[in-house]
Structures are given as C-alpha cells and as structure tokens.
Amino acid sequence: MPAHRSPVRVRAALAASLAGLLSMTACAGTGGNARTEPAEASGDGVLRVGLILDNTGDNAFLNAPQLAAAKAAIQDINAAGGHKGRPVELLPVHPDQDTAAQAKDLAAAKADVAIGPTDSSHATPAVDILSRAHVPLISPANTAAGLSTSASGGYYFRTAAADVAQGPVLAKLAKDAGAASISVLYQQGAYGKDLSAAVTDAAQQSGLKVLPGTGFKPGDAAEAARSAAKATPDAVVLVARDGAQGALAELHNAGVSGSKVILSDGAFARYGSALPSRALEGARAVIPGQLPTAAFQGKLLAVDPSLKDVSYAAETYDAVTLAALAAARAQDDAGRSIAANLIPVSGGTATSGAGTPQAPCLSYKECLGGLAAGPDINYDGESGPVAFDTNGDITTAAFSVFTYGADNNPTPTGHETAGHSG
Residue limits of the Leucine-binding protein domain (predicted)? Predict the structure, then answer.
C-alpha cells in the first residue's frame, strides 16, 4: 500500500535545540553494525517510545491505525509489568511536522526507540538523524529494496517485507494455477525493475519458462501489453503502481485478462467499473501482511473507537513489542542496547545457518517468561513471524492473496509466506 506524502516546514526551535545533541554524537558517527555489536547499559530506567507519523493529505488516514497500535502495544506491555517494573512511555506525536522535524523532536525528547515512517522515501532523513543519536528506527511500512543497505550503522529495522519479497509468491501463484510460462509486464522505475527481476528469478528457479518481459511508462502501456500478449504466456504478472489501471486495460484490449493476470501489491485495488466487465474475473493479487484477527481489531477499536482502517497496525504493534522485548533482554532501555537485542528476540540470527529458532512466543507477557528461561526468544506477533537478519529485514514475510470477481473487485482467498535465510 504505497503512499506519497509532501513535507511541511521544520520548526526552527527544535532544529536549534538538537544542534548540541548532534554535535556530541556526530563524532561517534554511524559506522559498524549496532545490530550485532555488544552494548553497555546506559539507559535511565524509563523506556520511551516515539512515533513518526508522516502521512498527509489523502494518506493522512494511515496515521490513526499506527497510533492506535502503538498505544495498544504499550498498554499490553505495561499490563505485564512494563520495563523493569516501570511504565513504558509513548512520547507526544507531531504529524503536522515533516519527518526530519519529528525525528529531531524525538531525539531531543530522549526517545529510546522510534517507530516509523510509513513512506520509504522518508526513511533516509529519519535514519540520518536518529542513528547519530543512537536511537533505533523500526518502520512498520517501508518496503523499498534499497533500504536493506541503508547507512544506518545498524539502527534501522523494519517489520514490513521489502517489495522484492513478494517475487517468489507471485511466481508460485502462477505455477499453482497450472502455468508453464509467464511474462512480466512492469512499470518502469525502481519498484518495477527490482520486483520484476525477483519474479523472473523465482519463476526460473521453480521451473517456469519466463518469456521476455516489457517495461512501460504510466499511461503508455499499449505497446508493452501487445508485446506480452504476442508471446502467448500462460500468465502475465503485472508489476505496477500508479500505471496499473491503464496497463490492465491495455492487457484486456490485447486479449489477456481474467485468471491469466496476476497483480503485484502496487497494482492491487478495487477497480470495479473502471475496467471492462469481467476483465479481472479470476485474477489474483497479493498484498503484504496477514488480515488482522477479530481480537486484534477489537483491541485497536478499544483504543480508538473511530478507527476506519487498520493499515500497518499489526506491524506497528509488533515493532513496539519487539523494542520492549529487546530492552527486557538487555535489562537496559538505551537505544544501543535495544538495537543490539532486536535480532535475538525476533527469532532471527546474526549468522547464516545458525540452527533452529526457539518455539514462537506470541505476546510480550509470554515472551518475558521465555527470557526468564533463556537468552533467546522468537516473538511471532500480529503481523506474523519476524526473525530480523543483519540488515534489519524480516526473513519470513506473510502475504494475503486476493481473487477478483466479475465486478473487478477483490476478495481475500488465502495467504502465502516467503522467506530467505539471514
């Protein structure tokens, strides 16, 4: 569910107040990897959680579910005893500020961990500021593949899967439906290029024949659609975002429609009458994450009865819970300690092939009991398994599968998982 937001002005007073803090930490830089390096206890005994809400305009609705989820997680953590017997605090939020201003505000407020932002393009300014302040940043929604190698010094994590993680799932959907060959029609740009390559690689590894793929620009997909149709593949995987509707219309015009079409998450939408009748009947699409349980939805509504959407709520809840578990494992609330302990509490490993993970624990309270029995636990939360790797990426990604009806609208029909070794 990609989102694009425009920034607002930075408050000069906050920028000035943080200048001294950054000057003290700049000499330390962000070299090394805080995810895997030992950290000495340096916290003040109070675990403070910050939230970056970077959604504005038409996407402002995405702020509410993340805020509700963070509050719900902290309520559950505090009900289980908080951090070392003291309540975990959620710092005030400032969605009226841009990402950099919010990050500076959180660093000045002595946040021990920050959750956010939503938009992948907003990650870099937050990472630049918070990593120098030694505050780990856990995004519940960033999916850009390039963020796996972000220069964060090990302070950047995400509970959302990278875009390319859906590549094997899209290939599997084609093969499971009986396809022996596919073609990938992709929108030009980083998203289309990276994901189409992931689909191609996964399809070839699964034994599918991959016919030549074609790129297109939004609003100019006719030639690419005709080229894909001419190759006569058993299925066409469409990797697109804002150009998806036009590409689907052109595929339909070229004779490729219905169950022969598989859509990436960026192309997922309720198309209805915007496309010819039955154009997508039988088509399948994936979106990251799993549908929230009724119990979790109830928990969110208890926090915010006016909530209309639950986008990224599960990933936010898990980010907060993982941070608290990392602090519990370290017996320290400092950002360095949290960053150094997120991998082992998530069921991940700092080395490849490092053995079988612990049996999953499903809540903060349950996982605390696991920590009392041993140093490593495996938190599987509302968004599913996490298991961070040394890049701060999740290694097992859950996806919901949707199938389109004759009305060109999707309904949930299943789920898939994809993973990689850390």
Answer: 47-342
The answer to whether residues 91 and 199 belong to one domain is no
**What is the sign, positive or negative, of the torsion defined by CA atoms of 22, 24, 27, 30?**
negative
What span, in angstroms and rounded, lies between the C-alpha atoms of 343 and 166? 22
Nearest to 83, CA basis, from 329, 372, 324, 366: 324
Domain that holds residue 271: 164-288+401-419
Residue 49: CB atoms within 10 A of its CB come to: 25
d(CA 12, CA 25): 20
CA gap 168, 150 in Å, rounded: 24
Let me know if residue 378 belongs to a domain: yes
> Three-state DSSP class for 15?
helix
Backbone angles phi, psi at 99, to 5 degrees: -60, -45
Read off the CATH number of the domain in which 78 is found. 3.40.50.2300
- Whether 170 and 262 have beta carbons less than 8 Å apart is answered as yes
Residue-wise pLDDT tens digits, 75-116: 999 999 999 999 999 999 999 999 999 999 999 999 999 999
Q: Are residues 358 and 387 in the same domain?
A: yes
State the Cα–Cα distance between residues 177 and 333, nearest whole angstrom: 49
pLDDT digits (tens, 9 = 90+) for 137-190: 999 999 999 999 999 999 999 999 999 999 999 999 999 999 999 999 999 999
Question: Do the Cβ atoms of 270 and 182 come closer than 8 Å?
Answer: no
pLDDT digits (tens, 9 = 90+) for 209-241: 999 889 999 999 999 999 999 999 999 999 999
One-character DSSP codes across 304-332: -TT----TTHHHHHHHHHHHHHHHHHHT-
So what's the pLDDT on residue 4?
35
CB–CB of 155/221 below 8 Å?
no
Q: Which two tokens stand for residue 317?
A: 């809840």
